[in-house]
User: What shape does this take?
Amino acid sequence: MAGKLILRFSDFGHDTVSEHRVFIELRELGGSVWWGWWKKAEVDIDPRPELQQLQPPIRTGLFNRTGSGKFFSASICEVRFPSNDAEVMTSPDPLQTPEYYRQRLCAAWFRIDALTEISRAEFIREFGLPPAGERTLHLRSANLENDDGPRLLEQFPAQGDTILHLSDLHFGTDHAYPMDETVTTVTLHDRLIKDLRTLGVKVGLLIVSGDILTKCNANSFPEVVDFLCRMADSLQLDRAHQVLVVPGNHDIPLDNEAVSVVKRATDFRHEKPFREFLKSLHGEQRQLARVEHVSLNGFPVEILAMNSVRLRAEPFKEYGYVDWSLYESLYESLYEANGVRLPQSHDPFRIAVLHHHLVSAFPIEPPDGENPISVTIDAGRVLEGLQKLSFRLVLHGHQHVPRVSKIAKGIRENFVLTGLDKPIYLVAGGSAGAKRLYDPMRYNTYALVKPRPEGIDLHVRQYSPASGEEPSTYIHTQLPA
Assistant: This one.
C-alpha cells in the first residue's frame, strides 16, 4: 500500500476548505481544485524525492490546527513543483484555484478531486497521530510509522539547582555594556559572573526570554552568540541542553517587510535569521516551539519554549500572539505518541517561557506614546491551557520592569468553575542589558529561580553599567506551591 501525505493548514481571513471544496462539488467548475503548499522556510524539507515515488491518487490527510481543529481526508490526483530550480510558482490553473490566492507563489500545488471532513479518530486510524511541531508537510509510510512524531526526551542531568533568567539584552545600539572590559568599564558577562560567584549560586539552566537584539538588527547575532557561549563556559553549562532562548519582538521583524501580512504569516522567511542564530548557538537546528527536560540537581523540570512573536492580522502586529493550539497539539502528540496520560501528579515542575506579557506590568497600556501595547492577545487561551497542563511558572520579559503575579482563570465545565485551584506565577524578568529603562525600574535586573516541591525561591538582582556600583537585591521571596 502506498505511503500517505499529511498537510497542515491555517485560515487567514478565508474559510480554506469551503473555498476549495466549491470547485470539487460544482462540476461546472471542473470537479477538482488546486491546493497550494506554503512551505515554511527553515522548517519544511523538500518532499520531491519521496512524493515522486507515490502514484496518484495519493491519500492525503489535512488538518487545521487553529480555531476549529477540524480534520479532512483528500485525494490528490496531480502534483506540480516549480521547474528550472525555481523555489515557488503560481497555480498551474488559476481558474481552478480559489481567487484569494490564485496568483500567489507556492512551493508546490496539489490538484484535489475529493475532500471530506472526518473525525479526529478517523484521521488517526487512516493517517496516524496528527503531527506536532512547526512543519506543514509530512510523509508517512504505509504502516503509519510516526517517524516525524515527538519523543519524550530524557532529562539532561544538570549539577546546578538554580535557573538564571535573563531578558531584554538588546545587543546593538541599545545595549548598555561594552563588548570588552577596560579599566573604567565592565562587560555584562563579567558583571553577572562576578555577582553569581559572590552569591555562591550554582546555575543549572540559563533561560533568555527574548529581545536579545535591538530593532531586529541581525548583525548583532554574533555578539549574542559570543556572550551566551562565554556565559555557558563560565557557568560550566552545556549550551546544547542548558541554554534556552526564545524570540522577542526585537529579534524577529514583523513590520518592515514589503510583502503582505498573509505572506509573512505563511512562509515565515522573516524567522530565518533567528533560526540560524539558534543553530549557531546550539550546534544543531531547533524549533521555536519545543519542550526541554532538565534535572536540576535531581529535581525534574520541564520547560516549554514559546514564540509570542507571531502574526495573525495586520492591526495586531504590535501585540504578542502565541497561537496556543500549536502547543496544545504539541503536548497531545507528545504524550499520545509515547502512551502517557496527561497530566499526572508526578509530572516534572513545568515552566513556560515567552517574551510578551500575559498580564501587564504597567497600570495603563501603553505606558507612554512611544511604546506599543505589550500584552499577548490570546493570553486567556494560553493561561487556560497552561493551567490544564499543570504549569507552575511563566518566565517572560518585554517591558523592562520586574513584576511577579499570581493568576488562575476559572474554566467553566458542566456548570462548575474549575482551574481556580491551579494558580500560575508569572515572573517578568526586567531587562538584563538595555540602556533604555523606564519608571519604576531604572536599573538592569536578572533573576535567580530555584524551583522546589514546596514552592519557588525567587531572587531578583539589580545593577547598572557603573563599574563602581555593586549589584544588590531587588526582590528575594518565597513563592509557595
In short: DSSP finds nine helices and 21 strands in the chain. The radius of gyration is 24 Å.
